[in-house]
Amino acid sequence: MHEPDHAAFDRSIDVQVSQLRHKLEGDPKGPHLSQTARNGSYIFATKATRK
């Protein structure tokens, strides 16, 4: 049985994160809200502040 190719799915996540960075970050090349983790996943985090 042929296993599905996950490369296209993996790449689509990269594209989605890239689009989010362009919308949310002031400088998408040096993001502060989103970080790439060592295992290839993404972390979206920011400091919480009280008003």
TrEMBL record:
Q: Which UniProt keywords apply?
A: DNA-binding
What organism is this sequence from?
Gluconobacter thailandicus NBRC 3257
Which residues form the DNA-binding region?
Answer: 1-46
Which Pfam families does the UniProt entry name for this protein? Trans_reg_C
Q: Which SUPFAM superfamilies match?
A: C-terminal effector domain of the bipartite response regulators
Write down what this protein is called. OmpR/PhoB-type domain-containing protein
Q: Where is the OmpR/PhoB-type domain?
A: 1-46
Q: List, alphabetically, the InterPro entries matched.
A: OmpR/PhoB-type_DNA-bd (IPR001867), Sig_transdc_resp-reg_C-effctor (IPR016032), WH-like_DNA-bd_sf (IPR036388)
- The keyword Membrane appears for this protein: no
Which Gene3D superfamilies does the record match to this protein? Winged helix-like DNA-binding domain superfamily/Winged helix DNA-binding domain
- The answer to keyword DNA-binding applying to this record is yes
